[in-house]
Automatic annotation (TrEMBL):
Keywords: DNA-binding, Transcription, Transcription regulation. The lineage of its organism: Bacteria, Pseudomonadati, Bacteroidota, Chitinophagia, Chitinophagales. Pfam families: HTH_18. It comes from the Bacteria. SUPFAM superfamilies: Homeodomain-like (SSF46689). It comes from Arachidicoccus soli. This is Helix-turn-helix domain-containing protein. The keyword Transcription regulation applies. Residues 181-279 form the HTH araC/xylS-type domain.
Amino acid sequence: MLREYRNKATLGYFIMHVSNETFKGDGITDASLKSINTFVFNKGADQEVLIDEIKYRMPPFSVLPLMYNQHFVFEHPETLVAWQFNREFYCIVDHDAEVGCVGFLFYGIHHPMFVLLNKKEMEDLSDIEKNFSEEICLEDGFQGEMLRSLLKRLIIKITRIAKKQVKSYSDFSNEKMDLIRNFSLLLEGNFKKEHEVKFYASALNKSPKTLANFFAICHELSPLKLIHNRIILEAKRYIHYTDKTAKEIAYELGFENPEHFSRFFKSNTGKNISAFRKDD
């Protein structure tokens, strides 16, 4: 079952999936999903999920936040509950940063983040699910605001649970965690043009050395490695989900020299682009 809410004036879009066999995210090939974030609620057994062509196991009794640009396919989508929303529905401006489209769940340290739920938390989310099911059917002037209120409640609930489970979050101040989140936001908006750490450090009012030292303490990857990983991830998405040539992908990702991009891709994946596409 799929139920949706649309606001023609704001282009706000909210979707609720329950026992929907066709539920999946089609990544960059589906323009309608380009700005949609997703929460997946697994109330049953563990199952496999393919995220950007990488296999994971989604644990039982867990929630998985998925960003707008991720491609995903679940082994048993009919057993899941999922909520999807675009920026126009919930994030018209980036207020309430921790519980918005730029918050901890989408721009934190760990991705994918499987948030495990205890019995009480399962009951709480099941209650929220029930409220969503009721409101999505009430087509009146209050529907959009009620759905947004429920979504904010859901995000706050999951954020609280997730922060308790991420050890590194409790180890560092909010200021330090905000630096990681702000770096991730900058990276998402600029990785196709800016490939050097100095750009991101300057935007964050830090020196490249200070930023690198900070990530050495707070993150398992350096800023440069995160930049490279994001470029490679996007390159793989183009290879998997489009017919773009290697030269076209190189230009899309800010490489003026396609040969330089080819060497960059091979050094980071161990394969050249044609071999990677052949293995797909």
